[in-house]
Write a structure and sequence with these properties.
13% of the residues lie in helices and 35% in strands. With 69 residues, the chain is mainly beta. The strands form 2 sheets. A 3-stranded antiparallel sheet has the order 3-4-5, covered by helices on one side. A two-stranded antiparallel ribbon has the order 1-2.
Length: 69
């Protein structure tokens, strides 16, 4: 999955979540539409077509990421 904001680093994603920003996420392509509203999942970035340079385990609550590791 990707975050709606195209974070270039995992650190930037973590900082946004720590600041309390509402970080939304999505699943691109034909697999989209089944994103978990609450619970754990993995994110990657930056967005395609750039090569992915980071991967993160995320926890969501009410369609926003609340924890990143």
């Amino acid at each position: 999955m990707y975050t709606q904001t195209n974070y270039k680093t995992k650190k930037a994603l973590k900082e946004a979540v720590t600041r309390g920003e509402k970080v939304k996420y999505f699943q691109p392509g034909p697999f989209g539409g089944n994103e978990p509203k609450d619970g754990g999942f993995c994110c990657e970035g930056p967005h395609y077509p750039e090569p992915h340079r980071w991967y993160a385990s995320c926890v969501a609550k009410d369609d926003c990421i609340v924890e990143v590791s």
